[in-house]
Amino acid sequence: MVSEFELSEAQRFMLLPLEERERRLEAMSFQEAEALRYDWEFWSRPSQRVPGKVNPATEDGSWTVWMPWAGRGWGKTRTGAETVRGWVKEFPIVNLVGPTADDARDVMVEGQSGILAVCPKWERPTYRPSKRRLEWPNGARSLILTADEPDRARGKQSMKLWADEPGAWRYGLETWDNLEMGLRLGPSPQAVLTTTPKPTKLLKLLAQDPQTLISQRPTFENEANLSPRFLQRMRQRFEGTRLGRQELLAELLMDNPGALWKREWIDRDRVPRPPEVLVRIVVAVDPAVTSDPESDETGIIVAGMDNQPVPHFYVLRDLSGVLSAADWGTRAVKAYRDLKADRIVGEVNNGGDLVEFVIRSVSLGGKPVGRDAAYKKVSASRGKAIRAEPVAALAEQGRLHHVGEFGTLEDQLCDWDPQDETAKSPDRLDALVWAVTELMGGGMGGLSISDAAIKGTTRRSA
């Protein structure tokens, strides 16, 4: 149970005797009751409200960046949406930034706790998706930007800014640099960054800035609004684990000493764009057998190999998620076509022939495109650690490059300890290993690396 200090006014109200609650509610008019539904001061916990001048690291105690580092289900999205709702009453330019266009639309704008849901009808903005903006009744406007298109943030000016899940941004520093240069209007430019903490360059840089105020809050602070079954499940599966410390307790974790990968390798060799010429591209699928909310993820990783005499390898996409068979099949085939990949490889230890059946069944735009995809099934005859070690060696040698940032994948790479028998199977790591192993191990029709390089001089990566 959360302490009394952390209770919202709504929670305090529920602690009153039933008779007193009924008396207060009956005394309210319909208009007052309707207004109470949208009264953030009533529903929010103190930790969710915009801080005042409470940063002792600065001369005047103020902050430029407020980062609620919070566990899953704490209420980050609601906090960001309500902060924007409050800001636009005073500031006419309050912009939004999501990890992707889909995230910005589905979570920040149209989500269950997004802006359209938290605003009463008399304050609700008009959403203009074609113009990527919100138009508020009082004349304020909010541009909707995405971190997977950092150049679109160039030159966009803000008075206030809400950035969601910067720990998952693919181009974190590049996007933030453009955003910060535009955060320059009004008497007190400020940004709220709602995120689960990840040890990315961007978050570590912001955490060291004296103008940043961090609020570390656990999932369980919001237990009054979460399903008891969910809370029980999270405690059973993740209590005492590194993943639980990050995702539930909002701790910023560094490398697991027993992991095969190190973040310093990934950061050292990260590139903003792939090389112009890639000899081969592979889409790897490590399927889950179910797709309910508590299922494992289906790992989908796209990787490519360049044309150097000693080849380097590039992680191009992470399309993983908790997905139905139809969804992961469509993602894999679409990536295969969009990136002009050479092959889809599917791990069949769990799915068997299901993987190929799903791939072959995919249609895009009414055309049965999956049936013509080059497909190869792979099965694990050796342990996961043995399969992963050669790929980790490439990373240590500086020959495995991440094109942008892949926060969840990188967490798995740097957290998974092959000696820990209790550690959860890392699905994205598995898919990466399958993709790079396929690139390393042939499938090139007997061509040497140099021959393949000649034949691949016209290939361009996407």
Short précis:
The protein is α/β, with parallel strands linked by helices and 462 residues long. Helix content is 35%, strand content 15%.
Give your account of this protein's structure:
The chain is of the alpha/beta class and 462 residues long. The protein has 2 domains: 4-247, Rossmann fold (3-Layer(aba) Sandwich); 263-455, Nucleotidyltransferase, domain 5. The strands form 2 sheets. Strands 3-4-5-2-6-7-1-8 form an 8-stranded mixed sheet. A 6-stranded mixed sheet has the order 13-12-9-10-11-14, sandwiched between helices. It is 35% helix and 15% strand. It is built from 18 helices and 14 strands. α13 packs across α14 and α15 crosses α17 (427-440).
Biggest sheet overview? 8 strands, mixed
Mean pLDDT: 88
Q: Low-confidence parts lasting 5 or more residues at pLDDT below 50?
A: 442-462
Estimate nothing, just give the exact number of structural domains. Answer: 2
Give me the Rg, rounded. 24 Å
Helical residue percent band: 25-40%
What is the CATH architecture assignment of the largest domain?
A: 3-Layer(aba) Sandwich
**CATH topology annotation of the largest domain:** Rossmann fold
Q: Return the CATH class of the largest domain.
A: Alpha Beta
Q: State the CATH superfamily name of the largest domain.
A: P-loop containing nucleotide triphosphate hydrolases
Counting helices, strands and paired strands, the structural category is alpha/beta
Percent of sequence in beta strands: 15-25%
